[in-house]
């Protein structure tokens, strides 16, 4: 991960000098975490995750001059990814409903390759709505503080807290119903 100073330097080089190499370093630093975040939102759809990640980085590169530095670059990037996911969801709402049904059927064949704990996590994540998946992923997997999650999702901190609480309860119930 980049230090705050390194991040600021790279962002400045991109914004002021259109430095593609500096942006490449930002992509290298943030791509794994961003892809994991999107993978959770898309419920494991690697193709959609790749498309959304690519769109996110393209939008970040073309819009980097609008980055004001009020939050960290990572928070800004997650916000773009979150918006891309919901834009895609709105564009393909009907297709998305079909996709969920198909992915759930596909999950049963893939389940044979998973450990019991992995299956529990898959079942638990599928029990959540997209907002709950987002806050759980950002809080527990990416270890972001509530304030950053609120900034990424444009939700009040209290709503983020209650979404995490509800999501944990739904996940617990989903896992208990499996056993």
How are the SSEs placed, and which strands pair?
Elements: H1 4-17, H2 20-41, H3 46-62, H4 73-91, H5 93-110, H6 116-126, H7 130-141, H8 146-153, H9 157-178
Helix pairs in contact: 1-2, 2-3, 2-4, 3-4, 4-8, 6-9, 7-9, 8-9
Number of helices: 9
Radius of gyration: 17 Å
Sheet/helix structural class: mainly alpha
**How far apart, in Å, are the first and last alpha carbons?**
39 Å
Query: Oligomeric form of this entry?
Result: single chain
The helix content is: over 70%
User: Which series of helices and strands comes N to C?
Assistant: HHHHHHHHH
**Low-confidence sequence ranges:** 104-112
3D shape: elongated
Mean pLDDT over the residues: 85
- Strand count: 0
Strand content: under 5%
Would you give an account of this structure?
- This protein has 179 residues and is mostly helical.
- The chain has 9 helices and no strands.
- It has helices spanning 4-17, 20-41, 46-62, 73-91, 93-110, 116-126, 130-141, 146-153, 157-178.
- Helix 1 (4-17) crosses helix 2 and helix 8 (146-153) packs across helix 9 (157-178).
- It is elongated, with a radius of gyration of 17 Å.
- The N and C termini lie far apart (39 Å).
Quick tags:
179 residues, mainly alpha
What's a concise summary of this model?
The protein has 179 residues and is an all-alpha fold. The protein contains 9 helices and no strands.
């Amino acid at each position: 991960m980049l230090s705050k100073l390194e991040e600021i330097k790279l962002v400045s080089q991109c914004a002021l000098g259109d430095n593609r190499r500096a942006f490449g370093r930002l992509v290298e630093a943030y791509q794994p975490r961003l892809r994991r975040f999107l993978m959770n939102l898309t419920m494991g759809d690697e193709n959609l995750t790749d498309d959304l990640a690519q769109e996110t980085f393209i939008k970040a590169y073309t819009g980097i001059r609008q980055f004001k530095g009020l939050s960290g670059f990572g928070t800004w990037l997650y916000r773009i990814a979150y918006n891309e996911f919901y834009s895609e969801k709105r564009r393909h709402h009907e297709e998305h409903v079909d996709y969920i049904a198909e992915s759930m059927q596909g999950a049963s064949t893939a389940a044979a390759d998973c450990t019991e704990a992995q299956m529990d996590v898959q079942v638990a994540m599928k029990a959540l709505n997209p907002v709950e998946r987002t806050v759980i992923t950002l809080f527990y997997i990416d270890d972001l503080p509530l304030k950053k999650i609120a900034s990424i999702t444009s939700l009040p901190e209290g709503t983020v807290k209650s979404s995490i609480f509800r999501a944990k309860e739904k996940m617990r119930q989903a896992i208990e119903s499996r056993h």
